[in-house]
Design brief:
This protein folds into two domains: 36 residues, no CATH class; 82 residues, lambda repressor-like DNA-binding domains (434 Repressor (Amino-terminal Domain)), CATH 1.10.260.40. By secondary structure, it is mostly helical.
Length: 133
């Protein structure tokens, strides 16, 4: 694609200082980096992805309210954490994390373990215990 063909659609980067970088051919036939504010197909794909993530998180939130899951499961979903990712960030085993994703397991977590989860997910312990945070 040529420099003048790099998409500049009003996408998710429109109102930010961030830009996507594309490589395009200049008039001399050399590749140059060109900043882009967005590309409609990419924006639509990202919007759909975030919509699906939000729906999944809301389902987990309802499970927490119904007593089927713990707030840990909700916060993991909101931050796109898998059990494996949280295990690697926190140093807590996958088996223990799975246990803590259940209400009874979460109730028994000690302060040091709560602190590890909070640091790993960049939140306070109080936020971790609630759904709002």
């Amino acid at each position: 694609m040529k420099i003048e063909e790099v998409p500049q659609d009003d996408g998710y980067l429109k109102d930010t200082n961030l830009r996507d970088i594309y490589y395009a051919l200049d008039n001399d036939g050399k590749y140059r980096q060109v900043a882009s504010t967005g590309w409609t197909p990419k924006t639509e794909a990202l919007n759909l992805t975030w919509e699906l993530i939000s729906e999944e998180a809301e389902t987990i939130r309802q499970d927490v309210l119904a007593g089927r899951k713990s707030p840990l499961a909700y916060h993991m979903a909101m931050r796109l954490f898998t059990v494996g990712i949280l295990a690697s960030y926190s140093g807590i085993s996958r088996k223990i994390i799975k246990k803590h994703m259940q209400p009874k397991g979460f109730e028994r977590i000690d302060g040091a373990t709560l602190a590890k989860y909070a640091v790993a997910m960049n939140m306070s312990i109080e936020e971790l215990k609630k759904l709002d945070g």
